[in-house]
Amino acid sequence: MKKTVLIIEDEKPIVDILAFHLQRSGYETLAAMDGESGLKLALEKKPDLILLDVMLPKMDGFTVCKAIRRENAAVPILMLTAREEENDKVMGLDLGADDYITKPFAVKELLARVGANIRRVSVAQEAAAAEADVLEAGRLRVHTGRMEVSVDGSPVDLSQREYDLLLFLMRSAGAVASREDLMHKVWNYDYMGDLRVVDVAIRRLREKIEPNPAEPVYILTKRGAGYLFSGGANA
Most exposed of 45, 47, 209, 228 (fewest Cβ within 10 Å)? Predict the structure, then answer.
């Protein structure tokens, strides 16, 4: 079955170019020209990936992203932005976007990111169906078969990317993973992306699982080297 990509973009020439190349690469496409209709399509049609512009009529991309994430933690969201301001990019990641691509973009790079994100979700879902491990550290518990995370018995709502990141770190407990390693192993990018994406994802994950995100006990930083998962003995 073909995977479906939803394009939420108000510039028709960009929509047409994206749809053409995505369809030629084997994807089905849906398109919306404003935030409100894009949100409606996202919730009703449940696409496999969403390309979301920041500047949209009726409802901006940040608001759309936040609303989608409340209902669907798994769908990859790649934000399209013509802006260069770092704050806008970080805001999108903070609201649950998986990555961003700055206009003008190379179609080859965009297609590579689309493919990597769709494969990542498919692999994670297939793995969850095939295994039923329970990973525990301190007060943290992950049931891989059900893709459920809890702290002190209370469920924790993670996005698919955050779950993949946590699972990778837990399974590599004690080993330092550089941001480049995480970009390759968790984001499935064969080329260098913006490493700030990793830092924002780590920060969001800490805010959800750490007793005190400012003094983490599970996901530790090794300055100049990367991140590692500890047993949470002080949790």
Answer: 45
